[in-house]
Amino acid sequence: MSPAVAKKDKVKKAPLKFTIDVSGPANDGILDTAAFEKFLHDRIKVAGRTNNLGDIITITRSGNSSITVTATAGTPFSKRYLKYLTKKFLKKHQLRDWLRVVASSKGAYELKYFNIAADNDEEEADE
C-alpha cells in the first residue's frame, strides 16, 4: 500500500451541521418552532424514504431561536435541501409572502422579513 493511500484512510470527516435561525419570526409569534421541527422530522428523506432518520440525522431545537440539523459523516445531505424544506414549510403556513430564507454563513440560514417599508416609500415618492 502506498503512503498516499494510507493517509486517506486515516482522515475522518466531521459531521455536517446546519443551523436555521428563526429567532425573529418566533419571537414575534408568527412562527411555531415546534411545528417547524416536526415538519423537518417528518419530511427529511434518507436513502429516498421519509421517517428513516435513525442515528444518521438528528434535529435539535434550542429554545425559540434556532433549529440545528446534524448529519453524520459520509451521509449525503445538502444545505440546499434544508432551504427547500424551509421554503415548503413557509408556503404551507402562508408565511412565504412575508419571510425569506437567507444564508447568514457557510452552515447557517436565517429567516428574515421582506423589507416592505422600502416599497411603501417608493410608492409614495411616485405619487
Give structural notes.
The protein starts with a helix and ends with a helix. The mean pLDDT is 85. With 127 residues, it is of the alpha+beta class. It contains 5 helices and 5 strands, in the order H-E-H-H-E-E-H-E-E-H. The protein is elongated.
Short descriptors:
127 residues, alpha+beta, 5-stranded mixed sheet, 5 strands, 39% helix, 24% strand
Question: Count of DSSP E strands?
Answer: 5
Radius of gyration: 19 Å
From the helix content, strand content and strand pairing, which structural class follows? alpha+beta
**Strand arrangement across the biggest beta sheet:** 2-3-1-5-4
| Biggest β-sheet strands, sense, barrel | 5 strands, mixed
List segments where confidence is low: pLDDT < 50 over at least 5 consecutive residues. Answer: none
Write down the secondary-structure element order: HEHHEEHEEH
End-to-end C-alpha gap: 77 Å
Shape: elongated
Mean pLDDT: 85
Helices and strands in order, then pairings?
Elements: H1 3-10, E1 16-21, H2 23-27, H3 33-43, E2 57-62, E3 66-71, H4 79-92, E4 99-105, E5 108-113, H5 116-126
Helix pairs in contact: 3-4
Could you give a quick summary of the protein structure above?
This protein is of the alpha+beta class and 127 residues long. It has helices at residues 3-10, 23-27, 33-43, 79-92, 116-126, and strands at 16-21, 57-62, 66-71, 99-105, 108-113.
